[in-house]
Amino acid sequence: MVTSIKDTIHLNNGVDMPQHGFGVYLIKDEDEARPAIAKAVASGYRAFDTAQFYENEALVGKLLKESGLPRSDFFITTKVTNPKQGYDSTLRSVEKSMKDLQVEQIDLLLVHWPSKKHFFETWKAFERLYDEKLVRSIGVSNYEKHHLEKLAARSNVKPAVNQIECHPYLAQKDLRAWLAEQNIAAEAWSPLGRGAVLNDETIGGIAEKHGKSPAQVIIRWHLQHGTIVIPKSVTPARIAQNADVYDFSLTDEEMSAIDALDRNGRTGPVPDEVYEKI
Ligand SMILES: NC(=O)c1ccc[n+]([C@@H]2O[C@H](COP(=O)([O-])OP(=O)(O)OC[C@H]3O[C@@H](n4cnc5c(N)ncnc54)[C@H](OP(=O)(O)O)[C@@H]3O)[C@@H](O)[C@H]2O)c1
Fold first, then answer.
1. pTM flag (> 0.90)
2. Averaged pLDDT, 242-258
3. Could you give the count of Cα atoms lying within 13 Å of 90 in the half-sphere of its Cβ?
4. Cα(155) to centroid of ligand 1, in Å?
5. Nearest Cα to 23, choosing from 5, 36, 6?
């Protein structure tokens, strides 16, 4: 049972990753980012999820340094963006990410989207970065089961994590169950459905019963399913609220009631369409 924001998931390569982190997509403005990251650190977040695509690696690196906490306290994830996929360009792009983030090693490096064209070359570069210990763990994002099966046939290192769109309206039950069998950790992006799920009546009712907010109930649902969760907010009160989910738990009935809200409510791109295009 999850008990604190310090709880970790033991990844398949032995690395411990915080189960509850902070997403920084769209946090690009320094005046907005500084109080947000400071509040996140003060609220207990130690895992930060960025990406080359977010164009904020340098800002995140700088603000985490400004926090005064040692580098070893943080778990930093970044992702190789679609136009940088391929062997050489992946290696070059990660070198730049490390410089921007001001780190000697990235904790988790993800392939942002599956690419038919660069499928194996990008992963070969990831394996090299992993062998050279420039990254502590490697994984993927937006991979379906068949992408992971294809990768397994011609790779040496198994992805540690698959970061996928996941929230009560796109619960990803089958993929999560399969990932668990494969010992690949599931990580939920847009865990709050980018706000879409927050007005749901069922979730509202459960929230009221516990004296918590809908966002807190949804974060708790992810955590109790064993999913890694990275809610994003720039609003200090919400950042603190999203971390304050360890003084209640959802019953089996409440978990099932939220599971039943699943409706294929995808908000982002369809992975197979991206795979064919990039
Ligand atoms: N791998 C991928 O392809 C991928 C794709 C998308 C996202 N991600 C990652 O996942 C992270 C989270 O996803 P996301 O940013 O798309 O969406 P999200 O975390 O599901 O939702 C963020 C939205 O919810 C609002 N919000 C946050 N906490 C709230 C609360 N307690 N009450 C009410 N509203 C609240 C935020 O508003 P304010 O900020 O205005 O407070 C923001 O509009 C991203 O930051 C990124 O790191 C990865």
1. yes
2. 98
3. 28
4. 32
5. 36
